[in-house]
Amino acid sequence: MKVGVCGTGRMGSSIAQRLMAVGHDVAVWNRDTAKTRSLTDAGAKLFASPTELVEGCEAIVVMLLNDAATEAVYRGPKGILTGKLAGRLLIDMSTLRPDTMQSIGTAVTQQGGGFVECPVGGSTVPAREGKLFGLVGGARDDVGHAMPILEQLCRRIEHVGELGSGATMKLAINLPLLVYWQALGEALTICEPLKLAPDRLIDILSDTAGTPTAMKGRGAVIAKGLSGQPRGETAFGISAAKKDLATAVQFAASIHAALPVASSALACFEEAEAAGLGKADATTVSVRWPQRNAAKSN
What we know:
By secondary structure, the protein is an alpha/beta fold. The chain folds into 2 domains: 2-161, 3-Layer(aba) Sandwich (Rossmann fold); 168-297, N-(1-d-carboxylethyl)-l-norvaline Dehydrogenase, domain 2 (Orthogonal Bundle), CATH 1.10.1040. It has 13 helices and 9 strands. It is globular and about 65 Å long. The protein starts with a strand and ends with a helix.
């Protein structure tokens, strides 16, 4: 199948790699064409605009940074909505506000296209391996049309309702994990007087009821950071994590709900970003907090 990938940041590129690996004829578009180079070198076709990408493919996977980028790419000049959408399927995997997902999805279907939202749980490695967790919203017929592609990208797929439902579920899933990275940093801070080796400390904390599954993959990375060693590839950056927390807090406010713990964690992610760590892995907040405390104590 001719499949387009609109947005080739870390996740979009990893998804494109997976689609190529399972045999699709993949085309790509990104505002910064430098971020498409590894994919075009591997055989992907580059299109000059979202409009051309849509019209040159049967299905298009969209993975954009935030709501503002999404509005620009869908509604801007030569955007997705200016293309001939009839008979084409869009699968939007971005993490957005539910109302944004409803708005763009409705605009696509009004023009005769199919639209499914599928924000995903998982980072770049699961994306390349086809092991994401897909949180799907959309009409049943459109979801059925999208399933062959989703099954190649996801280890588990949950159709949780109409448009906006997947976005809501994704915000709910990300929130406790991101709060945990800050809480872990605070736990490490109060362990500082023990002077335990970082790998031993992380091993102890990981073998407890309060530890998320993500620690299986990221615990060793955090221990390296505490030891001052390079942490390797960023799986999910601080700026992206901050955006997801901010989106959750904003959405909660729109339905008259308070998120006091998430709001406090958001302030810590904002502080880390302001300190120049926006491109660092989100787990860096766990390392930064005890170091920040130690610096203030000196």
